[in-house]
Every structure is written in C-alpha cells, then in structure tokens.
Amino acid sequence: MSNVPVWIVSVYVFILGLCIGSFLNVVILRSLAGEDFIHSRSKCPRCKNQLAWYMNIPVFSYIFLRGKCAFCKEYISIQYPLVELICGFCYLAGYISFGLTLKTLFVWIILSFFILLAGTDFKETVIIDIHAYILAFVGILFSVLKLSGVSIFDSVLSAIFGFLFFEILALFTRKIIGFRMFGEGDSLIAVALGAIFGFKILLLIIVLSFILQCFFSIPIIALREINNKKYCVAVSYLIVLIGLLSVFFVNYLNLFDDNLYLFFALIVCIILLWALKNIVYEITEKKQNVFNENDGIEKSQFYIMPFGPALIFASVVCLFFSSQVKVIILNFLN
Ligand SMILES: [Zn+2]
User: Fold this and answer.
1) Rg (CA), the chain
2) Cα separation of 64 and 325, whole Å?
3) Residue pLDDT, tens place only, 52-89
4) Cα 70 to middle of ligand 1, angstroms
5) What are phi and psi of 35, to 5 degrees?
6) For residue 117, how far is its CA from the centre of ligand 1 (angstroms)?
C-alpha cells in the first residue's frame, strides 16, 4: 500500500464513506420505522416505486435528479446527501489522522454509529437502544485491543459513570421542573462514550457538549418563541445566553479589577434569575398542557433540544482534537 499516493487512497476512502453513509441513511429510516433494512430494496417513500441502481448512487443521484423522485417528482429529503457527505468527510478525517491501520477501522465504525445515533435523535428525538449497546461493546473492544490508550478498567468504569451522571441529572431535573431534561437515550450514549474515551475525555466531552448546547439551542428556542409571539420568553432565553457569554468573556479579557468584576457578576446573576423565572414559569405551564392532552404530545412542545447530537458532535471533535480542546477549555475557564 505504501506505493499508492495518499491522494488516491483519500479518494477511495471518501467514496467508501459516501457509500457507508448511503447505507446509514437506510438504517436510520428503517430502524425508526421498525423495518428490516437488509432484505428489502430501496423505494420512494411516497410512490413506493423501486429505485434503479443509478438512482441510488450517493450524492450524485441527488444532484442528477435535482432532489426529486424520478417517478413522482416528490422532493427527496436533504438528509440523504447530507448524511452521505458527513460520513465521507468523517472517513477521510479518520484516514488522514490515523493512516490505514486497525485503529482507523475502529474509528470508522465508531463514527458510523455516531451518525446513526445523531441521525435518529435529530429526526425524531429517538435513540435506538441497540445502536448504543453495540457502540459501547465496540468501545470496550477498542480498549481491550489496546488501540485507544484507555485501560479496560477505565473503559468499563467510565461507561457506568456516564450512565449514572446523566440518569442522576435527569431525575434531578424531573424533581425540579417536572420532566427529564435529558432522555434515556442520552444516558445510553454516555455509556458508549465512556467505554470509548475513558474518564478524562468523557468529562471533556460533557463540558464541551454543554457549551455547544447553550450556544446553539438557546438562539433556536428564542427564535421559535418569537414565531409563537412569546417575546418575553424569547428575550429571557437571549438574556441567559448573553449573560453567560459576558461573564465568561469579561473574565477572559480581564477588563475589570476583582471588586468591579464581582459587582458585575452579581448584577448579571440578578438579571439571569429574572430571565430564568420567566422560562421556568413557561415550562411548568407547558407541562400542564402536555398532561391535559394526554397522549397527543407533540415533540415540538418540549423546550429542550435533543442533547444527543451535542454529545456526539463534542465526541467527534474530541476523537480528533482532544488535546487542543483541553487547552482551549482550560484557558477559557481560567
Ligand atoms: Zn416517488
């Protein structure tokens, strides 16, 4: 293999990633629908026509067909080319970082399961348990084969820690605001992450995913509330975000002396409490609506974005850049 130029291997690896991504699309859709994904052929979800092989080529078919079904012209979900491209680039990143090694094979398998978990979580806020269990098993095997630099002891203990951390937090939030802020799926993902990464990196992933969740979900929630004409709640969410950011950045930039910083932090805290009060009021009101409607719970009624994608995004970052992330977070908090 050493005679083959790197760019040619890269092209092959990218195409392999696209094809696996195409398969992952099918697994995401059919496991959400509870269908068999090995024995049946691909068909259009609307007109049920079976797809010819040339309509199944990753990314290219989507471009050729201009994003529409060849039979009924129904728009094809952007999910298909998106998952394929993400998988292609993930595989490429695995090859570039670790070469053509057994470790890379494991990294590819792990990334594939990350895409599955994030995919089902994004689409229907559901985690398929078996995906998380298999990934946890792969993680433990990863350390048994001494490929990850994590001891078996660390791997198993961190898997248990990951589960307990999210379960305890979820039960705690249920006591306080009335529903689990984290789903059972998040606890299962954390089991797999603990098994793969070990204790130190698991902590790093949790911190990073909380930061990501704040930065991405608060503006989205605020925008949704503006659409619902609930300006007070929208503004409250934005104030929480700006407050958190300003406390971090003022500390980071060292603008004030200690006394002035304390005073500043105190004022921010008071404003944050006011904003949080609005939000908690809104959540408890929503909770009553949910109970009234019994089983007609719409997913969009929940205020918390699915946390799984944030956990997984943080994990991908840590898979490739754990040492850099550690330095950035430590600088940020100091
Ligand atoms: Zn069709």
Assistant:
1) 22
2) 40
3) 888 888 888 888 888 888 888 888 888 899 999 999 99
4) 7
5) -100, 165
6) 27
